[in-house]
Write a structure and sequence with these properties.
93 residues, alpha+beta, YaeB-like fold, 5-stranded mixed β-sheet, 5 strands, 31% strand, globular
Length: 93
């Protein structure tokens, strides 16, 4: 799967790493797992409802989440992952 970082995700990534520098490697590891196995049990990937209906979330740790969308690429016909936001549970929901 191809992975794309939206501008909002890039901002959230910088904000999160600035607050918690020790999480940098864990975040990148989770993103790598997400690109290979988006529905792996250890990511706790789940569909969102409400204002974020149509999006998905996965867990980095107990309180840190990545919000993403799945989209069909019209050229390659593969599913792309578009990273939307990252932050604590309260920040992203």
């Amino acid at each position: 799967m191809n992975l794309y970082w939206s501008s909002s995700f890039k901002r959230g990534f910088k904000r999160t790493v600035n607050k918690h520098p020790t999480l940098h490697d864990g975040i990148l590891t989770t993103i790598q797992k997400l690109s290979k196995y988006p529905f792996s049990a250890n990511l706790k990937t789940h569909k969102l409802r409400g204002d974020l209906e149509g999006s998905w979330a996965c867990s980095i740790d107990y309180n840190l989440r990545i919000i993403f969308n799945l989209a069909k690429n019209p050229i390659s016909h593969e599913t792309d992952i578009i990273l939307i936001d990252i932050g604590t549970h309260d920040e992203v929901y």
